[in-house]
Amino acid sequence: MHRITVMKVFNTIAALQNELALLKRTSFNVGFVPTMGALHEGHLSLLKSSKEKDHCTVVSIFVNPTQFNDKNDFEKYPRNVDKDLEILESAGCNIVFVPNEKEIYPEPDTRVFDFGGLDQVMEGQCRPGHFNGVAQVVTRLFKIVKPCRAYFGYKDFQQLAIIRFIVKKYNIPVEIVACPIVRESTGLAMSSRNTRLCESDRAKASKISKVLFYLKDRYNSFHSVKEMQAYVAGELTLNDGFDLEYFEVVDEETLLPPDSLQQPVSKVGCIAVWIGGVRLIDNVNFLS
Ligand code: AMP
Q1: Which CATH number fits the domain that encloses residue 245?
Q2: Distance in angstroms (rounded) separating the CA atoms of residues 244 and 126
Q3: How many domains does the chain have?
Q4: How far is the CA of 223 from the centre of ligand 1 (A)?
Q5: N or C, where is the chain less crowded by C-beta within 10 Å?
Q6: Residue with the larger pLDDT of the pair 4 and 222
């Protein structure tokens, strides 16, 4: 599907839009993959999906300060743009947008979004203001790139639900494409934050997905969410170096807890765990 072969890198909105205007003149479909860099196979799976569908793909690399409620986390977030560009070039990416903070936020963004309550649970509860920051940057990037499709990973399951919600609510003309979670051979969900784990914590962290997949396999033998939560807490203990922030079961669309596990709606088990000072999230859809 892709027609452009040489990868171009832009740091300014004006230069990027100039290029996109030329491409769109010949009715190009632009796919968009927003990232915060420190790229891995998970990000590349989004690029791959776009390459199958769109004439060209824009990948953005921008560590968005407004979505970090913890300054320390923002500062420690892994950054390696040179390596990212190499990875993107070998993966056949067409256009990379690497703006600095002033380019994205020439003025502070004071917009406050309404997420219809989707931000009141899990990540939204643990990271106040996080999703508002995500919405600020994603809506700005959509306005800059104007893609026909944008690709997001199930890895950030709540973020995906929120992006889908704002696209609908604010009538943003973009198709949201959801991509499956890419895992390491141990089952650990790939994440830029994994690079901050020491070798032994990284090995231990594979237990998180093992616990989720155990719950999925034995789904029918659990009678309540509480029972599942007790199982998870018993497996991921402080003694073993885990600090469990939450394990919740929610409806895929509303993010509300189900009345019972037997309800025939799509249910997702979501987890946030600290290990070795690094916060990891993962999830599993019990019914798919
Ligand atoms: P990030 O750079 O962490 O903001 O992620 C950029 C995009 O990549 C988001 O849509 C993430 O959901 C997606 N992503 C991150 N990790 C994975 C993964 N392991 N599998 C699939 N998608 C992922």
Answers
A1: 3.30.1300.10
A2: 12
A3: 2
A4: 32
A5: C
A6: 222
